Structure formats: C-alpha cells, structure tokens
Amino acid sequence: MAINHPNFGAVAEDRVFIFDTTLRDGEQSPGFSMNLDEKLRMAEALADLGVDVIEAGFPIASQGDFQSVQRIAETIKGPVIAGLARSGREDIARAGEAIRAAERKRIHTFISTSPLHMKYKLRMEPEAVLEAVSRSVTFARGYTDDVEWSAEDGSRTEPDFLCRCVEAAILAGATTINIPDTVGYALPEDINRIFTMLLERVPGADSVILSTHCHNDLGLAVANTLAAVRGGARQIECTINGIGERAGNAALEEVVMAIRTRQDQIGHTNEIKTPNILRTSKLLATITGFDVQPNKAIVGRNAFAHESGIHQDGVLKNAATYEIMTPESVGWQKTSLVMGKHSGRAAFRDKLRVLGYGEIGDNQLNDAFRRFKDLADRKKLVYDDDIIALVDDEVVRDQSRIKFVSLEVRSGSQIQPRAKLELEVDGVVKAAEAHGDGPVDATFNAIHTIFPHDAELRLFTVGAVTEGTDAQARCGVRLEEGGKLVDGQGADTDTIVAAARAYVHALNKLLFKRARTEPVALTA
Q: What backbone torsions phi and psi does residue 464 show, to the nearest 5 degrees?
C-alpha cells in the first residue's frame, strides 16, 4: 500500500525522512542544555541543512522548554516542528499548544512497552499500556493530523505485544510509528528483524512511515539505523554530532553520508544539503562548548587528514585512493589561507557566505570584522577555522547579558599576577582589578568581583584552533551552581583573553539556567 502522509503527501518508495532530535534528546546530554536564542539559531541551521522534522523539545518539562518549542514553531519554516509528549492528556495538550503556530506540525507521543519498563518504570499491566496507546494517539489527533507514536524500549519488547501496540497506534490514527533502541542494546540483525516483522504481521504498517531511533551504548547506533532502513524504516531519528543521552544517538552526518556514499547497497534518498553538515556541526560545538573529537567521522578535523606517507602519495595521485567522499561534499574547504590584514569588509562578508553563515546582522558583522582585523594584525596566517572561531564567538554571544570589553594582565615569576578587567553587564560597563595564583586565576577573580556568583569552576581547558605559536587559543570553562552544569567557550590569540571570554560565556548560560527548570529526564 502506498504511503500518503499528511505533512509529506505521497511518499516515494526510496525516500528516507531525516528527523533531527538535537534540540530534544541531544539537549538531554549532561552539560548540553541551550537557551532560547541558542535553540533558535540551531533550529535555523537545521532548517538550512534540510532536515524533514525538527523535534524542538519536550514542552511539559518546563516553561523554558515550552517557550522554546513555541518560538521555533512560530519562526522556523520548512521542516515539520514536533513536540514530545508522554501518554498523559496534560503532556499532549501542552505539546499541542506549543506547536500550534507551526507551518507544519507534529505531536510525538510515547510509552514504554518492554516487560522491564512496564513492570518497574510504569508499574502497569500490558493491557493498560495497550489502552494508553490508543487513548494517547486519539487525543493527539485532536491537535494535529500528524501524530508519531513511539514504543519506548521497543527493541526489548516482546514481538507479539509490540505488534499489538503498533496496530493499536495505527488504528487510533498514528501516521508515523517509531521503534527506538532506547538503551542501545540491539544488534543490526535484531533491528532489521523487528521492522521486517512489523511489515509482515501488522495490518496497515505499510501505510504509515516506520521510524528508527537508535542509541549508541554499544557503538552500534549508525549500524542499527542502516539495518532498520534496510528492514523497511523510512524515517531516521538522529542528532548532529551524535549527541544525546549517555553514549548519544545515531549521528546525522554519519547516517546521511553512509546513505549517499553507499547508494549501491542502500538505494535511498534524502533532502539533506550535505555541504552544510560541517557548518552545522561547528555551530553546535560552539553553542554547547563541547568540541568534536578529532577522529570523528565526517566532521572531525582529522576526517580528511593524511599523515602516512603511503596515504599522502596515494591522495596526491588520486584522492579517491583514500577518500570515499570529497571534503567539499560535507563542507570542508580545500583552500583555507585566503584572508589577511589587507582584506576588506566585502571580502570578509563573502568569506562568511562561503563558510555557510549566510546573512548575519550588520552589528554582528562589524564586531566580527573588527576582531578579524585585530587577529590578522597579530597572526601571520589566518585560516578558515580562525574565522569560524571568532565569528561564532560574536554570534553566539550577541544576546548575552554580560559582555567582555577589555583585559589587561601582568604576570611573571617575580610578581603576583594581576588582572584589570572591564565587562559590560546589562549595558553598563564595569571594571575591577584582582590578584590570583596565576593570570587565569586573577582574571576569574576579577570576573567574580564584577559579577558576584556562587558557581564553582569544575573544568578549565585550553586548546589551539589552528597551528603555530600565533594560533588562536580556544578555552573551555565548566561552572556548577546548585547541581546545574554549564559550559562556555572563548577564542583569542591571547589565551588569557580566551579564558575570560569562555568564563563570561558560561556565566551567561548560568543566568538563563537560574530561571529555568531542567528538562525531565527522558529516553524514548
């Protein structure tokens, strides 16, 4: 039977839909929470990337989550905007209200179906769960024609009961059926067998979109996702950089490029604009403060690097000898040394466009260009990654209450380190001078003097954005207050300035978190 979906119309047999849950499941990673402005910026990037569905959050979790989903629904055009809800009426009603203004909308409701979850988590009998499936989907259909139902811990659910639940959801009006490998337990053959079984045994399974949501606890999320597609799944739930609960989710960039690179075996298509992948990955890393590991597939900085002499020789003769995809296909640039101190504003704006920024505001452009010129005066070589670091530093901080203004540091083996700092707090420039055990400690003490707080420093990291002694430093700061963790990043050729920017970035995130309840822990 052909699939006729309320939001996608007639679905081609080879079409695979990309459902991105970076803003919901991804944000549940410890330390990865985002404020409203950061979520909006990520949602815009995901829309530009071409994802089919953006799961914008879990509206019942907090007022902040509700507002984020609502604003994304009001603002973002193109993708379907989904809100997550448990099976209760209050959850579903809250999700329905949050997504109400969306151009295209979906409610995603779920309940656990495995014996383990039903007994110890839900404390419900199977028949009660089955009734909840029908009731929740029917109620959700009152808010939108596009309802997705998920069987939490589906990969550990008894086959007969899973088929009954899926049939009940379809009869109640679900248009997408999601079978998550919630705890990353399944092997590829298990996942393939589940989807094959559903298509063979459940009436109407071939008239809805079957979806897969795989976690990476055994490092099999991408392999299991591809196995699900080969078994009949036509929606892939994934996240940028693979972030998510525990070991994370299937990484969007890996799944998409596997489908594209191995068309000979997989034979499906999607609408992802792959040259935007790297840009989206870097944006997420900047917002969350967590860098991508160097050897990460597709988006790690070593993904297209070749150190072995044998490999280098092969690549110089024919890149295909050791590269199964081109760097440009996912957004990497072959030529990075194209900007310098003599470059003008027009060239800088064009460079930002090439790097995937599109149109940014004049104020942000002016601030970024000023920092670029300062950087070009201090560095012999300016790389693409240098420009990305400083521009993201400006864009992400544009709506911050606290802004870095200036820093003067005195330090050495014969003097006590001292820092003289200026910050703009709610539009007012304030100054302070402080001593410390080192220049970084003195700087952080000065920040504390200007903006007193009870947060404790839990982590401080320093790394180089590019190469050489004049490379930009990228610093990371993790603060904890009342059990809440926040991470900030800052970049500058001066390591102490980068550290100050990182601390200020973290403080701004903390200010948001003070007024926000943390999302309820979910799995799905």
A: -95, 135
Residue at which a domain ends, from 344, 377, 396: 396
* Token output for 447: 């920040």
Per-residue model confidence as pLDDT tens digits over 409-444 = 999 989 999 999 999 999 999 999 999 999 999 999
- Say whether both 101 and 231 belong to one domain: yes
- Please give the pLDDT value at position 335: 47
- Map tokens 């914008």 to a residue: 56
Q: What tokens were used for 437?
A: 């055990």
Give tens-digit pLDDT for 86-131: 999 999 999 999 999 999 999 999 999 999 999 999 999 999 999 9
Q: Same domain for 326 and 357?
A: no
In-domain check, residue 296: no
Cα separation, 342 vs 178, whole angstroms: 54
SS3 423: strand
Q: Are residues 409 and 494 in the same domain?
A: yes
The answer to whether residues 85 and 219 belong to one domain is: yes
Say whether both 28 and 144 belong to one domain.
yes
Tokens of 110: 């779920």
Half-sphere exposure of 33 (CA within 13 A, CB side): 27
Q: Strand 235-238 and strand 4-5: pairing?
A: unpaired
Tell whether 65 is covered by a domain.
yes
| Of 512 and 417, the one with more pLDDT | 417
The H or E element containing residue 201 is helix 188-201
Q: How many Cα atoms are found within 13 Å in the side-chain-facing hemisphere of 460? A: 14
Residue type, 15: R
